[in-house]
Amino acid sequence: MDLIDQLRAFVATAQTGSFTAAAEQMGISNRLTSKYVAELETRLGTRLLQRTTRKVGLTPSGQDLLARAPALLDDLDDVLSEVSDGVSGFSGVIRIAAPVTFGEIYVAGMLGRFADKHPNLSLDLRLNDQFSDLAAEGIDVAFRLGTTDTLSIKSRKLGTFRAILAASPDYLARAGTPQTPEDLQRHACIVDTNRKNPKRWVLQKDGADHVALVTGQHQVNSARAASALAVAGHGIIYAPSFAIAPELEAGRLTPVLPDFATAQSPVTAVYLEGRVLPRKVRALIDFAAQDIRDAEICS
């Protein structure tokens, strides 16, 4: 039996926790998936999965294999794709991760534009505000906002963005317009818990930092939800400019403290250290770098 098929069946089963889900993912029968995994265990002389009536779990040997097998299979796919790409253009799958709001507002559309140029490619976009484990989840490239301290990944800066303070005209008419960052501490502030320091808002003017420790009735882990609350008049938000641009243009939100600057944060494409970057992934990152400038998402 083909070792590659056995490894693919094992990885799919381990990642989904189910022979049935793995079979659906691979497009084969449940019985054949289970057979492939059993033959791999026989080949290796060790049990890889703990089988129960409800779920499939990993043994220590299975954990060791899962830590390395997805990358091996991806490398094999990349080698085959490189040969095929030279004849017919890019093909296969690129798995992409991105934060939810940035992914919905920008990345999905960018991938659509990239796909139009490469009709034989399949693009798998996964949105999550938690940083993805690129190796464990088989992610080829992730688009991230802000800095990362992970040593096992490489990154390419695509641009920078700023956060903007804003509130609805109704809220400002009712509560007054802040004149200094210190005034924010007396206002209702909508806290985006995705930020590293969600209640510590830092602004700059004339080379000096001004820190406001804010509070408010509403905390939410989505810039879009925070924007909706602000539009409804529930307080002041500190949100990425790309997330609230339509509301600002339509006048549903008004900038607050526009004379004070906010810190810039990078937008990066990240991928695993130590692996040769496939040409199709490299092409996607190059495309994103140009597209992000053309779309004026970042500064």
What's this model, at a glance?
The chain is of the alpha/beta class. It contains 10 helices and 14 strands.
Overview of the molecule:
The chain is α/β, with parallel strands linked by helices and 299 residues long. The protein has 3 domains: 3-82, Orthogonal Bundle (Arc Repressor Mutant, subunit A), CATH 1.10.10; 88-160 and 265-294, 3-Layer(aba) Sandwich (D-Maltodextrin-Binding Protein, domain 2), CATH 3.40.190; 162-262, Periplasmic binding protein-like II (D-Maltodextrin-Binding Protein, domain 2). Helix content is 43%, strand content 25%. β1 (49-51) and β2 form a beta hairpin. It is elongated and about 70 Å long. The mean pLDDT is 88. Keywords: DNA-binding, Transcription, Transcription regulation. GO terms for molecular function: DNA-binding transcription factor activity; sequence-specific DNA binding. Pfam families: HTH_1, LysR_substrate.
Q: Beta-sheet strand percentage? A: 25-35%
Q: What is the end-to-end distance?
A: 54 Å
Sheet with the most strands? 9 strands, mixed
Poorly predicted spans: none
User: How many individual β-strands?
Assistant: 14
What are the key terms here?
LysR_HTH_N, sequence-specific DNA binding, three-stranded antiparallel β-sheet, alpha/beta, WH-like_DNA-bd_sf, Arc Repressor Mutant, subunit A, D-Maltodextrin-Binding Protein, domain 2, 3 domains, 25% strand, 299 residues, nine-stranded mixed β-sheet, single chain, 14 strands
